[in-house]
Amino acid sequence: MAAPSAVPPLAPPSAAPPVASVPMGSPAALLPVAAGSSGSLSPWPPGTAPVGPAPSALLPAPPRRAGLVRRAAGWGVDYCIVMVPGLLLVAYGVANLVRELPGYVGAVAAGFGVSRLIGLITHRGAGGESVGGVAAGAWLGLALPLLLAILAVPLLQFVYQASLLVWRGRTVGKMLADTKVVPVRAGARVAPAVGRAFATTLVETGLVGFGLALAVYGELVAGVLVLVAATVVWWVNLLPALGSGRRTLVDRLAGTVVIRRELYSQVAAHTAQLARRTSGAAVVAGRMGADAAVVAAQVAAEAAAAAHRRGAQQLPIAARRTSDAAAAAARKTAAAAADAAAVAKQGAERLKQAAPVQQALHSKTAQQGQDLARKVGGRAQELWRERRSGRPPDGS
């Protein structure tokens, strides 16, 4: 039986590598630490980490908070949407007040007494303590439509803000400015929207409407103080938005933040991408058209060359055929002429051998004609020879 091999002694435990401190609850605390990584947080063993962007680079970028210009543009649109019908209501109330003012003076005079009112005027207000109650009661009935119109403006703004923020998280102005109101805490939606609508209404039109209502009712000093307070609150609400957080006091109280939707930039990016694709398609189509034109030109040239070659090949054949036809026609013509000559010769021989012709030739008259012809022919030959030799002809 073989002896067991010696077991090497255990190495003394080395000091654990320092591990970077990671806040509890962060995503990095859930990643295992690779052995021998010198404390670097990595879910992969040493040397096996995939090449590529870090996991944080793959996460979507957090939404950007809306700047002051966008928020001011959206606020201006929303304010106009609320104030246009609100001012129409207030204008109606003022018109009603002016129209009913003579009746109000008549009612005060009737309630206080015309003689007492004349006495009050002539005695410079002496004894006019009781006119205040009569005037106040009549004034409340006269100014009630104007008071209701002033107080209807904040109610109109609250309904407008709350309904759109709960429904879409965006008012009409924020839609045009490409911004949106989102809650800071995930899951909450209705409460932050309603709270923000109430706080916005209180800061923008609530305190102003309340101060104007007090002034119209007759509490002029209190009304002015409320209007001053409304101006201070408006600026106090705006100043925190000038910081890096871009959150107004209303945002902080309601737990909301205004972010950019990036809709316009996405539309611009998609439009640019579509333009690039369209231009690329146009370039490809142009190249394809040019290639098609080149191919068509090549095909036409090849067809013309083939036709030329075929014509060149057919031309000698046609010439040969024409020459052959001409030679055949010449041969036929020559044969026909030979046949005609043979026929004429045969006819002449037959005519010569004919009995009447023979009798005419051997007759005495024919013999005399032949002798005369021989003489004439001999004389003509002599004249021709003498002319050629240069001698003058004989007188005979």
TrEMBL record:
**Which stretches does the entry tag as region Disordered?**
354-396
Q: How does this protein lie in the membrane?
A: Multi-pass membrane protein
Q: What is its main location?
A: membrane
Pfam families associated with the record: RDD (PF06271)
Places the protein is found: Membrane
List the InterPro entries hit by this protein, alphabetically. Answer: RDD
Q: Which residues cross the membrane?
A: 72-95, 101-122, 134-160, 220-242
Task: Give UniProt keywords alphabetically.
Answer: Membrane, Transmembrane, Transmembrane helix
Q: Where is the RDD domain?
A: 66-255
- Where are the compositionally biased (Polar residues) regions? 360-370
Bias (Basic and acidic residues): 382-396
Quote the protein name from its UniProt record: RDD family protein
Specify the species.
Dactylosporangium vinaceum
